[in-house]
């Protein structure tokens, strides 16, 4: 498996944040500023130590220690409702595809809005999705990044509907 080697650094008065992409997610680490640490990250920059603490971790690792519950999820797409069982460590999209339910999808990373849906009932964790809080408050979810926290019901929506809500305000 190849990992990206680029990293970005943000320097504050007393600390630095190192954002280094790993596989399909970013690992964010903090490093307190101390003498003799410049060579490690920037060569000529003084005072950066690499005592790192993990702030965010990929979904697959976070979920290993959580419950192994299985939730009943109703997915409505193009007027047809399918009932599937979704383990807490799988996304609704992955469980649906595994069960033979065809749903629109593309990036599988919570960015493109192809797998847009509305949460009608229940609770999900979609902390890996790149949705604004305003869009989430309207009930929009991305099925490729939605992990059930309870039994739930979702209904797919036109990709353009969520795309416009999420990104439309940035287009001319």
TrEMBL record:
PANTHER family linked to this entry: FERREDOXIN, FERREDOXIN C 1, CHLOROPLASTIC
Protein name: Ferredoxin
Species of the source: Cyanoptyche gloeocystis
Record function comment: Ferredoxins are iron-sulfur proteins that transfer electrons in a wide variety of metabolic reactions.
Localization: Plastid, Chloroplast
Gene3D superfamilies with a match to the protein in the record: 3.10.20.30
GO biological process annotation, one example: electron transport chain
GO cellular component: chloroplast
Cofactor dependency: [2Fe-2S] cluster
